[in-house]
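in:
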């Protein structure tokens, strides 16, 4: 199958995405980022409400696009952005559930690696176990950006899972004994696609709830108030 842009999932024309795309899961967070941080904004996608925008931040071009929930949605959009739109860098700006006692609500996590229980990697027919890691250049920029802004952060390993409601309620907590900080549903898949396409990827995450303490933020907070990770991402440009 020969792919070309626009696609069934992205209606933007070639050249309408910047080289760097920020990707939250929530379409309303994408809209909020575009409206509150970017200048000269234009909407370039609304298929399936996966809103995408391109504008500038401090004069530098940047795009923002929602990726939805889970590995399938993330990989479809990331693959097409890398493959068809010449996107070089995808920075996920999403939420994560804390499992480490070191974390508290609203902490920023920079994902240095992603353990996973998704089968997405199987299509590559590797004879071993692939390590899902980010691009070091983006990781270094994120740390430098956070420190320049005075924003506290944690760098470490996270877990990407395909299961939001596990039958074994303790299954995700077992990962904390291996130093895993938090759990979410997309990062490992993003890192795998980026590696296969020889592009760059990083996940900046905000702790929206904590599995141990039971604390959680509201949907409204997740859409509009997780500003620290967004500012870190934008200052990386």
């Amino acid at each position: 199958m020969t792919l070309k842009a626009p696609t069934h999932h992205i209606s933007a024309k070639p050249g309408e995405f910047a080289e760097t795309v920020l990707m939250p899961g929530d379409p309303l967070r994408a809209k909020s980022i575009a409206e509150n941080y970017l200048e000269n904004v234009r909407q370039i996608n609304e298929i399936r409400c996966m809103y995408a925008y391109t504008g500038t931040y401090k004069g530098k071009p940047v795009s923002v696009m929602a990726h939805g929930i889970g590995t399938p949605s993330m990989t479809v959009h990331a693959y097409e952005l890398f493959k068809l739109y010449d996107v070089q860098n995808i920075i996920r700006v999403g939420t994560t559930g804390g499992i480490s006692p070191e974390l508290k609500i609203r902490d920023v996590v920079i994902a240095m690696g992603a353990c996973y229980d998704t089968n997405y990697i199987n299509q590559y027919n590797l004879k071993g176990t692939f390590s899902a890691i980010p691009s070091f250049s983006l990781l270094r920029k994120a740390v430098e950006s956070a420190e320049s802004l005075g924003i506290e952060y944690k760098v470490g390993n996270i877990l990407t899972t395909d299961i939001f409601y596990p039958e074994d309620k303790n299954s995700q907590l077992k990962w904390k004994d291996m130093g895993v900080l938090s759990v979410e549903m997309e990062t490992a898949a993003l890192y795998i696609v980026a590696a296969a396409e020889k592009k760059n990827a990083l996940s900046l995450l905000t702790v929206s709830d904590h599995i141990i303490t039971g604390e959680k933020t509201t949907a409204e907070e997740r859409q509009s108030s997780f500003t620290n990770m967004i500012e870190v991402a934008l200052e990386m440009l």
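note: The chain has a mean pLDDT of 95.
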